Amino acid sequence: MFIFIGAFVVLGAVIGGYLMAHGNLHVLFQPAELVIIFGAAIGSWIIASPPKIMKMIIGNIKLVFAASGAKKENYVEILLVLSQLFIKARKDGLIGLEKEVEKPKESQIFSKYPGILADHHILDFICDTFKIIITSTPAAHELDSLLEMEMEVNAHEELTPSASIAKLADSLPGLGIVAAVLGIVLTMGKINEPPEVLGHHIGAALVGTFLGILACYGFVGPIATNLEYKVHDREVSFRIVKAALIAYLGGSSPQMAIEYGRRAIPSADRPSFDELDKLAKDAKTKS
Fold first, then answer.
1. How many domains does the chain have?
2. Quick one: which of 76, 144, 188, 258 has the fewest CB in 10 Å?
């Protein structure tokens, strides 16, 4: 929703200001300039992007239109799942978690939280880490290094689409100049025309520069930034899991380990201690 509001504001401000100065909208409508700029932009994007990256970019575009990234409810679900897993491990031993993490979709714990089951990235992160703990019993610092490495790899991969789109945005002003230069070349062929005709053609040529800069800073660049912010939002989920697991493996009680995870949530989305404690007690009562 907000992306459409933003686009409306950008176009409204630019076109509205132009009309306030008694501009002629007909001059801005230059299909040939659009073909040159955006056709060349798509071509350069194809040249620069291997097939794998292209698929990632296309798959991530839908995130731009999503209402938001991770929400408070998602973070709370992660904390509640971890809390129940820790309590079960304390009661039955780590081996008691084997069935839960081997087949999470059949797990009594995970089945209560469809949001986590639907997110295979965070689900795999939790289950794979518990599998390592069950089979290898690593030291806390070893697991810390392992999880940090995986998170860095994931972040680098997920930031690739936004970086690629940002580079595409950077190319648009230059391609706008290409369109403008071609327009000037055509105008020079009409040098014998009256001044008003030359002025019209020069203005049409300069529209190319205008369109390239507007597309870069008004639309494509902000789309890349939007994707980047959503990747950083998503990274919080992994940091919650990491903080809680490292604390638990280091000897903290289940409640204290969950508190480590809760403190890893940004303050705007962080549930209060009492709120989370009540939810955890309710979940424990239902199990």
1. 1
2. 188
